[in-house]
C-alpha cells in the first residue's frame, strides 16, 4: 500500500514545474510556510550552498551532529534513486508511507497557494515545504539543509540558519544564475544571515570577495578554509584517506574518511568548522573520528564492483569533473579507464568532456532515464571533437554502454589495472546504481 501511495504522490508532484524550470521568488514558499505555521522556524539549521560538494558536506555535517546526540533532519537534492532520499531523519530516508503522509498533510496548503499566484509552486518548492513540515513534526533538534539552485531566492532560504556553509563556487546553472561568477557568488552569498557564522570552502578571488562583502554587510562571522581552518595532513588510504584537520576551535588527527579525493577532505574540514560554529566550541576528536569514519556519499566516486572496478560519480559540470579526474589520478592506478557518459543537454558538455579526456582511454557515450538527457548522436559529435573519433563508442542505452565499457577493459583486468567510470549527471549515477544493484 505504501508503494502505491508513494507512486501517487510522485505523480502529483510531477505535474508541477520541474527543477529545471524556475520562477525566482520567495513569495510562494513564504505563503505556504505561513499557512503551515512556519515549521522551519521551530528548529535551527545549517544551510549549505555552493556549486559542488553540497550533498557530501551535508552528509558529514549530519553525521557529526548525530554523533553529538542531536536529532537531525537532512534535506538534499536531487535524489539518486528514490525521492524519499531527499528527506531524512536521523540519517535515514523517510519511509514511503511517511513521505505520502507528509504530502497529504501539506497538499491542501499547496493548492491554496497555487490559487493565489500566477505560477504554481514548483516540484522543488513543494518538496521543500514537505521537508520543513516533516522536520517540525519529528521534531528535530537541527536541520541540515542543502540549497537547490542559487541561494538568495532558493526555496530553502526561508529557513532560520545560524550557520551557513558555502562550498567552492564555479559556473553552473547558467540559464538561471548567468555566466558571470561574480553574480553567481552574489546569489549563493544570499543565504548568509545577519549575525550568523559563514563557513567558506576555498574560493576563487571573485567569489571570496563577494562572500567577504556580504558577511561584513550583515555582520556575519566569516571563517575561511585555508585561513581559519584547514586540512593539515592528508594521506591516501585503502578505501579512502587519513586526515588531520585543523578546525577553528580544535585539532582533529587520525580521521579516516571513507571517501576519495582532496575535495572530500575539504568538505570534511568545512563540515567540522560548521559544527564547531553551531556548538560554539571544539568537538570531541573521538566523536569526529567515529562520525566521519561512518560517512557515506553514494554516487560520489563510489566503487560498486571490482574485477574490473566499476565506479559511479554524479559530476555534472566541468569543476565537478575536474576534481573527479584529480582524485582518479591520485588514488587509482588504472592502466586502462573507460568512461561511460550520459549528460543533460543544458550543461557545458564540452567542458565536462575536456576535464575527463586526460584520464580516460576511451569514452562510451549514451543516455540516461531523464528527458533532459542529450541524445546519443549529439553527445557523440561533441565527444569526437574532444577525444577523436577512434576513442568514442556510442550505445543507445546505459545497460548496453556499461556492458560495452566492461568489454573494452576486460583485456587489462588480469593485471588489476582496469576500470570503468560511469558519470555525467546525478541521474546517470542513480540509474547505474540501480542497474548494478547498489543499496543506498
Number of strands: 17
In spatial order, strands of the major sheet run 4-3-2-5-1-6-7-8
Oligomer: single chain
Instruction: Determine the CATH superfamily of the largest domain.
Output: Mur-like, catalytic domain
Q: How much beta, percentage-wise?
A: 15-25%
- Rough outline: globular
What's the CATH class label of the largest domain?
A: Alpha Beta
Distance between the ends: 22 Å
| CATH architecture classification of the largest domain | 3-Layer(aba) Sandwich
Structural class: alpha/beta
For the CA atoms, what is the radius of gyration?
21 Å
Largest sheet: 8 strands, mixed
Count of all domains? 2
How large is the count of helical segments? Answer: 15
If you consult CATH, what is the topology of the largest domain? UDP-N-acetylmuramoyl-L-alanine:D-glutamate ligase
What is the typical, i.e. mean, pLDDT?
Answer: 94
Helix share bin? 40-55%
Residue windows where pLDDT falls under 50 for at least 5 positions: none
Amino acid at each position: 500500500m505504501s508503494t502505491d501511495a508513494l507512486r501517487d504522490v510522485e505523480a502529483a508532484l510531477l505535474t508541477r514545474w520541474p527543477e529545471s524550470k524556475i520562477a525566482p521568488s520567495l513569495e510562494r514558499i513564504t505563503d505556504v510556510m505561513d499557512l503551515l505555521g512556519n515549521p522551519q522556524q521551530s528548529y535551527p539549521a545549517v544551510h549549505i550552498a555552493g556549486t559542488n560538494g553540497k550533498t557530501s558536506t551535508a552528509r558529514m555535517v549530519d553525521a557529526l551532529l548525530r554523533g553529538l546526540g542531536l536529532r537531525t533532519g537532512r534535506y538534499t537534492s536531487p535524489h539518486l534513486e528514490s525521492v524519499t532520499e531527499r528527506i531524512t531523519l536521523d540519517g535515514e530516508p523517510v519511509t514511503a508511507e511517511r513521505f505520502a503522509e507528509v504530502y497529504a498533510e501539506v497538499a491542501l496548503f499547496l493548492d491554496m497557494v497555487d490559487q493565489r499566484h500566477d505560477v504554481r509552486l514548483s516540484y522543488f518548492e513543494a518538496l521543500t515545504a514537505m521537508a520543513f513540515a516533516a522536520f517540525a513534526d519529528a521534531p528535530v533538534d537541527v536541520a541540515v539543509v542543502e540549497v537547490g539552485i542559487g541561494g538568495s531566492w532558493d526555496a530553502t532560504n526561508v529557513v532560520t540558519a545560524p550557520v551557513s556553509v558555502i562550498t567552492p563556487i564555479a559556473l553552473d546553472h547558467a540559464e538561471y544564475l548567468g555566466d558571470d561568477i561574480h553574480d553567481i557568488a552574489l546569489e549563493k552569498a544570499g543565504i548568509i544571515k545577519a549575525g550568523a557564522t559563514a563557513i567558506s570552502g576555498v574560493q576563487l578571488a571573485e567569489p571570496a570577495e563577494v562572500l567577504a562583502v556580504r558577511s561584513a554587510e550583515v555582520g556575519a562571522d566569516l571563517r575561511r578554509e585555508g585561513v581559519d581552518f584547514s586540512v593539515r595532513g592528508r594521506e591516501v588510504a585503502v578505501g579512502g584517506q587519513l586526515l588531520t584537520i585543523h578546525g577553528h576551535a580544535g585539532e582533529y588527527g587520525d580521521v579516516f574518511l571513507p571517501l576519495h579525493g582532496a575535495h572530500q577532505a575539504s568538505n570534511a574540514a568545512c563540515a567540522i568548522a560548521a559544527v564547531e560554529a553551531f556548538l560554539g566550541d571544539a568537538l570531541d576528536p573521538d566523536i569526529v573520528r567515529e562520525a566521519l569514519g561512518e560517512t557515506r556519499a553514494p554516487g560520489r566516486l563510489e566503487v560498486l564492483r571490482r574485477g574490473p572496478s566499476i565506479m559511479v560519480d554524479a559530476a555534472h559540470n566541468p569543476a565537478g569533473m575536474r576534481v573527479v579526474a584529480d582524485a582518479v589520478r591520485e588514488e587509482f592506478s588504472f592502466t586502462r579507464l573507460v568512461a561511460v557518459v550520459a549528460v543533460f543537454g543544458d550543461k557545458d558538455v564540452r567542458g565536462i568532456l575536456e576535464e575527463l579526456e586526460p584520464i580516460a582511454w576511451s569514452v562510451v557515450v549514451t543516455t540516461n532515464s531523464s528527458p533532459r538527457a542529450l541524445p546519443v548522436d549529439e553527445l557523440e559529435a561533441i565527444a569526437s571533437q574532444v577525444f577523436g573519433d577512434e576513442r568514442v563508442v556510442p550505445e543507445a542505452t546505459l545497460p548496453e554502454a556499461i556492458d560495452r565499457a566492461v568489454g573494452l577493459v576486460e583485456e587489462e583486468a588480469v593485471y588489476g589495472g582496469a576500470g570503468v567510470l560511469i558519470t555525467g549527471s546525478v541521474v546517470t549515477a542513480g540509474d547505474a546504481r540501480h542497474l548494478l544493484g547498489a543499496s543506498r
